[in-house]
Amino acid sequence: FRLNFHAGRAYEEVRLADHQLWVRQVDPWGRERITRFNPAWVRVVLDRLHDGVQRLFLAGQGQRVMIGGFLTQDERAEVAGVIRAALGNYRG
Q: What global pTM score does this model have?
């Protein structure tokens, strides 16, 4: 139960603001990792592995970060669509 409790405190935040897209990932112990992207160059990548599992990445300028590992495949596809739409609005 202790591991499950700790895992419940982990989260990710994706923001598009002030001419950058950034991903803030906080692990169960409160340690955070922030990755910043130029929204003009970032790509949303849905990789399908050989066993049919999908993974969601943001990639650009030599960086690649996986997001949504705790989501279902349908939720990952939905999040990918939301981020793509936000980037399209930003670029347009």
A: 0.85
**Is there a contact between 20 and 28 (Cβ–Cβ < 8 Å)?**
no
Contacts of 1 (CB under 8 A, 6+ apart): none
- Using DSSP, state whether 60 is helix, strand or coil: strand
Average pLDDT of the segment spanning 38-50 = 92
Tokens of 18: 């002030």
CB under 8 Å to 11, separation ≥6 — which residues? 25, 26
Residues, the chain: 92
Separation between Cα atoms, residue 46 and residue 29, nearest integer Å: 28
How would residue 28 be classed by pLDDT, with cut points 50, 70 and 90? confident
> Tokens in use for 24?
């803030």
